[in-house]
Every structure is written in structure tokens, then in C-alpha cells.
Amino acid sequence: xxxxxxxxxxxxxxxxxxxxxxxxxxxxxxxxxxxxxxxxxxxxxxxxxxxxxxxxxxxxxxxxxxxxxxxxxxxxxxxxxxxxxxxxxxxxxxxxxxxxxxxxxxxxxxxxxxxxxxxxxxxxxxxxxxxxxxxxxxxxxxxxxxxxxxxxxxxxxxxxxxxxxxxxxxxxxxxxxxxxxxxxxxxxxxxxxxxxxxxxxxxxxxxxxxxxxxxxxxxxxxxxxxxxxxxxxxxxxxxxxxxxxxxxxxxxxxxxxxxxxxxxxxxxxxxxxxxxxxxxxxxxxxxxxxxxxxxxxxxxxxxxxxxxxxxxxxxxxxxxxxxxxxxxxxxxxxxxxxxxxxxxxxxxxxxxxxxxxxxxxxxxxxxxxxxxxxxxxxxxxxxxxxxxxxxxxxxxxxxxxxxxxxxxxxxxxxxxxxxxxxxxxxxxxxxxxxxxxxxxxxxxxxxxxxxxxxxxxxxxxxxxxxxxxxxxxxxxxxxxxxxxxxxxxxxxxxx
Length: 495
Description:
The chain has about 500 residues and is an alpha/beta fold.
């Protein structure tokens, strides 16, 4: 009976996977066509409302930008773009997934060709790649800086115009600073023993932290720590520039300017969730002597197999183009379809005040609705570019980041993951810990990508306090050892 039951369960699982694959192929094939149609529709609407259309990644050019001020995108070590930044040029990493996303049908054809070639011992030539390629989107952005064309209106017609989303545009000084929720000792002291930087994940905001764990820290913790929760560039109340490519460099530079320099932060702990873990690792590499502890929640780390294109591989892992589970379906639409995802932002983000009102009405105003601000206060431009230029473009850098943390940093590294996380599997944390042996992994059973914090914020606040205490003791021991070494009389070795 047991064997028969096991066989029946295996058959049901196989049937479910087959059904999911079949439905997914049909749905995403339809979305491939829909995205092309929406491209034309949005160009017409953009031109009608704003007198010019918003450049997109549906078409690309194999030519370099040739003008008196030439900019080049190289594909020798991954796509890069030279940006004019103030009075200097910066080399930015731009993910090739922005303009190279194969349709479901073409991908199916490629796999079938490879399978046939493998069975018949035929060789399949990889498509030739050009030395240089540049998207029309990048061309428009760069040329706009040089030609000083008419700036795009803020906000764009398809973006939200509420006070929360656009508070940054009302003050000239706010355009160069991220929104930072800073909490510290009640007595107003400006120097404390510890500073903590909280970095949220994709399509989120600082509210993810301030409405959860910030509420649960003890009075002792608040008296000894300055807590900084940032809205990343393009999210929440932070600036949402229409001409930004939202690269990893831009995100880190803005955090540096808005937190480290503004609040004179010399050393700090980092707590990061999901996409924020990539930014946290990059900051740890930039400031190896300043990071006291590194706490990563659901890090999106996927070891890239030999021979795979890193950014393309990561995109397929994060967004597998499946209709189930639902969170994978949402991630797939956000990652693979530029205009479908813009439509979703138009319906949800632009109208987040309506959704907030409806939720309060049907719940009788009995439930807190901070999650709407968490997930709905961003622009499509910010979400689209951050997803590709941070998660996908960083794939090639992750190994070097982890090696640096392992070899050059001595701080505590703690990793947490939800056992029921359907977006990023638990293996992400275990694989990361394998690269940093001193990292300790804790899995919260029956928790997913969001409920790893939301719903158990008190327990997690205690976890963080314990991490900071341990890091403080470790730092104190190192300081004592250094002082003893300085005070210890020096003896000469006999010659």
C-alpha cells in the first residue's frame, strides 16, 4: 500500500509539473505578443501626452554612439556604458538582460535544436555576438544629457503624482538625497556606540523596517544605536529620476551621500533583505574596515554554472516564467516584459491611494495598510532598471564580493531565510554560506519571502540585538588586544 501510495503521489506531482509547464508556455507566449503590442500603444500615448515617446529596450542598435561626445557600450566583459556624470565620466555596468530577452517560442526552439543536436552528434553554432551594442534607451538617455533636450515632466503621466511618491521633487536639496528614516537616542546625542543601516529589497521601502522591527527594539537598544532605514533610489519617498539607469553604483553612491556622509557614520552594522543583500555586500566590499556585522535576509545568490552567461542565468532563476507559484509569475512578468510590467505599475502603483482606500473600506479600517506603501510607491523606470542592473548585472561580481567578505572582512555574517520562500529558495542562503564558512544560517520554518519579517518582527528584533551584542563583544576584544599589544614592552630577539 505504501509503495502504491508513493507512486500515485509521484504521478500527481509529475502531472502537476507538466500542467504548469504547458499553461506557462501558452501564457508567456501570449505575453510575448502582448508586450510588442503594448510597445506601440505606449509610444503613441507618450507622444500624444508628452510630445515624445519614452525610449524602450524593444529595439537595439549594433552601432556605437558616434558624435562629438562619443559613448560606447562594450560587451567584452559584459555590457557597459560610459555616462557623463557632472564633470567626470563613469563606467557603469548595464545588464544585457535589458535588451536580450528571448521569447518563449524562440527559447523552446533553441532547446529543441540543442536536444536534436545532442542526440545526433551535430554541432550547434552559437549566434555571433557583436563587439559593441547599445540600446536605443541608453542612446536617448546619454544624448539627452549632451543635447540638453527638454527635460521629461515629473512625474510622467503613467507614474503616481501623490505627495508621498513625489515629496522629493518639491525641494531642490531633496533631489540629491535619499529619504532616510533615522531614529536614535531620545536625549538627542549625535554620537552613539553603534550605527545600523537597513536596506530594503525589490519594490519595497524603508517602511518594511520602520513599521516592523523598529517598533520592537528595546529601550536599551534605542539608547545605544542610531537606526537608519533608507528608501533606495526610485522607491518610496526617495528621488525617482527619469534619466537614471539605476545601476548598483548609483544606489551605493546615493546611500553613501545620504547616510554615511550626511550623518557622519564611521562604522556600522548592515541589515538587508532580498535585493538589498547585493547592495549590502557591495558596500561591505567598499568599506571593509567599517562594517561591524552583516545580516542578510533571503539573499538572491545563485552560483553560476561554468559556461552560462551570468546575467541571463540569474534572470531565469529569479524569473522562471512559470504561472505557479504566484510570486514567481509576478517576478517573471516584472523581469521579462517591459511594457506588461509598465501596465502593472500603471494600474497598481499610480493608483495606490485607491487600493489603500478600498483595503481600509473592506477591512473596516481595522488593519494597518503600511504594506501598500511598501510595495506600491515606486516608478516602473526605477523597478525595471533596478531589477536588471542590480540583480542580473551583479551576477558576475557576486563571487568576488563573497571572496572579499571571506578573506578581508572579520565581521559577523548572519544569514536568515524563510523555509517556505517560493521566490528565492533556501539553497541561496546555504550556497552563500558555503562561500563564507563563518556565516551562520538560520531557516525560519513556515515563513516566506515577506513573513520572515512581517508577523514575527518581535522575534527578529531580538535576533538582531543579539547579533549586535556579539559583534560589540568581538570588537571590544580586538580593541583590548590592540591596546595590550601597544602597552606590552618590546623585547629584542637575540642575534
